[in-house]
Specification:
single chain, binds zinc ion, 3 strands, globular, mainly alpha
Length: about 260
């Protein structure tokens, strides 16, 4: 089964697994044992043993020590190690792309990792995409990653990239909940972009700026406008909340600040 390939042999990720969930996505805890740091193994290939030892040491400390850094937002060593590996010269870009997504899954969403049956490279993809495999409550996702995702896996974009992976996991859950099929694509994207655009950053991954949030919420609006009248009514409250939050992000954006946002 697909899940086997995604389970690692160590159990170093628990510190992260126990951190509070960052969003209210209605995903149950799966049977995953959260014993899966493929991320560690991948980093071993890409960033060398020093980085891995570093990670292991940090994990051990996670139980007792509140992160020594300034805030819950600032990128920590785990985030930096993934970015460093993503931007390294070796291995090839395809492998680095798959490794980066796998490392994000292992590090930030260990309890949802069993929802993904594999991560594959699809060069021309604009970011990430999920292809549902199977039917009903056992659907898993083939997570596809393209060139743009990996070339943009840099410090300023990292918090968003972590939330972008959550967006794809939400799609898997949507398929499990009976929201599959082309007809429901706008509903899936409305919800996933709304949640991504308004989500609190996963702790210690960095910051997602208001310009990016506005872009994501605009995508949610495009999809909302494609809904049937009944569905528009069904999501009236979320739509209202979205517009209010978008207005508050817009109020934060000063014209001279938009330059460094990136995507
Ligand atoms: Zn989507």
């Amino acid at each position: 089964m697909a899940e086997q390939g995604l389970q690692g042999k160590l159990s170093l990720e628990r510190g992260v697994a126990e951190r509070p969930a960052h969003r209210s996505q209605p995903i149950q805890s799966h049977d995953s044992l959260a014993t899966l740091p493929g991320a560690i193994l991948n980093l071993q290939q890409t960033a060398g043993n020093a980085a891995v030892s570093q990670l292991m040491i940090q994990r051990d400390d996670d139980h007792s020590v509140a992160a020594p850094s300034k805030s819950t937002t600032a990128a920590d060593e785990h985030a930096k190690a993934i970015v460093t590996a993503a931007q390294a010269e070796t291995p090839g870009i395809e492998e680095r792309a798959v490794n980066a997504v796998t490392a994000i899954l292992d590090t930030y969403y260990p309890d949802k990792k069993s929802m993904v049956n594999k991560v594959i490279w699809v060069e021309d993809l604009d970011g990430l995409n999920t292809k549902a495999q199977g039917r009903g409550p056992k659907v898993t996702g083939e997570l596809q990653v393209g060139r743009k995702f990996i070339t943009h896996t840099t410090g300023p974009n990292f918090a968003r990239h972590v939330l972008q992976v959550a967006h794809e996991l939400e799609h898997v859950q949507q398929h499990r909940d009976g929201m599959g099929g082309n007809k429901k694509a706008p509903e899936r994207e409305f919800l996933a972009f709304y949640h991504e655009g308004t989500a609190t950053e996963v702790p210690h991954t960095g910051h997602m700026g208001p310009v990016m949030r506005i872009k994501l919420l605009n995508q949610a609006i495009v999809n909302y406008n494609l809904l049937s009248d009944d569905d528009k009514k069904k999501y009236e409250d979320q739509h209202k909340d979205l517009l209010e939050k978008k207005a508050s992000y817009e109020a934060k954006v000063k014209p001279e600040k938009t330059a460094g946002e990136g995507d």
